[in-house]
Specification:
The complex is a heterodimer of chains A (406) and B (64).
Chain A lengths: L1 H9 L13 E2 L13 H7 L4 E4 L5 E5 L2 H9 L3 E2 L33 H9 L5 H25 L2 E3 H6 L1 H11 L6 H11 L6 H24 L5 H8 L4 H32 L9 H9 L8 E3 L3 E3 L2 E3 L4 E4 L1 H5 L33 H18 L4 E2 L7 E2 L8 E3 L1 E3 L1
Chain B lengths: L1 E4 L9 H5 L4 E3 L5 E3 L6 H13 L5 E4 L2
Antiparallel strand pairs in B: 1-4, 2-3
The chains are: A alpha+beta (406), B alpha+beta (64).
The structure holds protoporphyrin IX containing FE and iron/sulfur cluster.
GO molecular function (chain B): 3 iron, 4 sulfur cluster binding; metal ion binding
Cofactor (chain B): [3Fe-4S] cluster
Keywords (chain B): 3Fe-4S, Electron transport, Iron, Iron-sulfur, Metal-binding, Transport
Chain lengths: 406, 64
């Protein structure tokens, strides 16, 4: 029993333990720089997990080591569902819609409820399907670059390119008319901003769902080759669930990709030796890990992670950016080095919820960088990096604008 | 070494397909299929990487 006893004694619990003596406030600030907060290194060096205090007043476990993040994301006793007491939220008012409010919001469902949605959508996101989609993504990107070139010799690359491309791609995929892009962007912005109020969130959610349910009725009469029509034909979901799943795809597909594209653009402009190297995309995903605090969890039983006892009903935030900068997994983790093999990064999560759109993201980033640097070789930043407007208030980290010239 | 996939665990993330395309494919439902059960030694390194990369731990190597 000696081994067993040692293990039990090795488990930390928060009362009186040194690693929890300092209750940290979360989310952290990262003034003037786009990289994951420097304090993550300190968190990783502590024993166990980090007990922290959220703007809502709730206390949650922050998970920052690579192995621990993977362990959290694959443990069946740890749930993605806000239906459980203690489920965390990173914003002032809580970010994740409840699947009871938004049926079909399957990222917040556990297996087996989750599986029906995922299975219905996987065929549209396979490596092969995304490869087939490349020409249409190229067309979207070319069109935006035509627009940039026609408009002059300077632009806000966020507004005119990095926010536009993912939005146009996911809209086309879902069958949402392009003309309604502004409608969606304004509402999605409220949903991904930490300081939005309850009312703002509720209203944005209701308006998006109302729009989508009307669109679904149109698709019922006149099916196309879009995802909404595919979901309708699958028979696997109710109409309400299709609205919710479509809303999830719109939000998940846009903000993350747009932000990673913009931040990556800055990195490539500052490190032009990597422009055109196809390994840059994977490293940019690891390096920025923009969906740092998107995967939220709650323990449905007492669980031990990384030597820390998590009690049933305690919230858990596995920080994928912290895991992706863990130097025990990635050497010189804070350096941008596409030459490394970064494939095992967890920027897309791990376990059954690992990003459904990941191959689409890879294609979008690859085509966007390839095309813009080829067609506008003189592209450069129009302001110093320190003056860029980073999204400190974003659930997903990114840039509000990116002034460039050529 | 024989490559074994568990289609019931597979969540269609496609890590296997991009890492070892000569060994894995996805069927029309997006679920893993092993196209080369006994890959040559040269492929085995990629297959071993997949054991770790597959987010649902649906790939294994059998000793037979
Ligand atoms: C850089 C871009 C992106 C990043 C960093 C990213 C990151 C993530 C992460 C970390 C998760 C896991 C969440 C969890 O475990 O709770 C996730 C799930 C998901 N992502 Fe992405 N994502 C990106 C782009 C996209 C795109 C383009 C789409 C869709 C078209 C998409 C659709 C989804 C969906 C539907 C899920 C939920 C999957 C499930 O629950 O089975 N994402 N993403
Ligand atoms: S990596 Fe795993 S989950 Fe993804 S397709 Fe292959 S077997 Fe399925």
């Amino acid at each position: 029993m000696a081994a067993g006893e040692t293990r039990v004694r090795g488990i930390h619990h928060r009362e009186g333990m040194s690693n929890t003596a300092q209750l940290v406030d979360f989310p952290l600030r990262r003034p003037g720089q786009p990289y994951p907060p420097k304090q993550y290194a300190d968190f990783r060096s502590r024993e166990g997990l980090v007990w922290s205090h959220m703007p809502t007043g709730a206390k949650v476990w922050l998970v920052t080591k690579y192995d621990d993040v993977r362990a959290v994301l694959t443990d069946p006793r740890i749930s993605s569902s806000p239906r459980h007491e203690g489920f965390p939220s990173v914003g002032r008012t809580g970010g994740v819609p409840n699947p009871d409010q938004v049926p079909g919001w399957f990222v917040a469902l556990d297996p087996p409820d989750h599986d029906r949605f995922r299975k219905a959508l996987i065929p549209e996101f396979t490596v092969r399907r995304i490869r087939e989609m490349r020409p249409s993504i190229q067309e979207v990107v070319d069109h935006r670059v035509d627009g940039l070139l026609a408009a002059g010799s300077e632009a806000d690359l966020v507004h005119d390119f990095t926010a536009a491309v993912p939005s146009l791609v996911i809209s086309a995929l879902l069958g949402v008319p392009h003309v309604d892009r502004d409608f969606f962007e304004a509402r999605i912005r409220l949903l991904v901003t930490m300081s939005s109020t309850h009312d703002q969130r509720d209203q944005a959610t209701r308006e998006i769902l109302r729009y989508l349910s009307r669109l679904i009725l149109v698709k019922q009469k006149r099916p196309g080759d879009d995802l909404i029509s595919v979901m309708l034909a699958s028979g696997a979901m109710s109409l309400q669930e299709i609205s919710g799943a479509s809303m999830l795809l719109l939000i998940a597909g846009q903000e993350t990709t747009a932000n990673n594209m913009a931040l990556g653009m800055v990195t490539l402009l500052l490190n032009p030796q990597w422009i055109g190297d196809e390994r840059a995309v994977e490293e940019l995903l690891r390096y920025y890990s923009v969906a740092d605090m998107v995967a939220l969890r709650v323990a449905t039983d007492d669980v031990e992670i990384g030597g820390q006892l998590i009690r049933k009903g305690e919230g858990i935030v596995p920080l994928v950016a912290a895991a992706n900068h863990d130097s025990s997994t990635f050497e010189r983790a804070d350096e941008f080095d596409p030459g490394r093999s970064a494939r095992h990064h967890v920027a897309f999560g791990y376990g059954v919820h690992q990003c459904l759109g990941q191959h689409l993201v890879r294609a979008e980033l690859d085509i966007a960088y390839r095309t813009i640097f080829e067609r506008i070789p003189k592209l450069e930043l129009a302001v110093p990096v320190e003056e860029l407007a980073f999204k400190y208030d974003g659930v997903v980290f990114g840039l509000d604008s990116l002034p460039v010239r050529w | 070494m024989r490559v074994v996939a568990n289609p019931r665990g597979c969540i269609g993330a496609g890590q296997c397909v991009i890492t070892a395309p000569a060994v894995f494919d996805q069927d029309e439902d997006g679920i893993v299929v092993v196209v080369d059960e006994r890959p040559a030694e040269a492929q085995l390194e990629d297959v071993r990487a997949v054991l770790d990369l597959c987010p649902s731990q649906s790939i294994s190597l059998a000793g037979d």
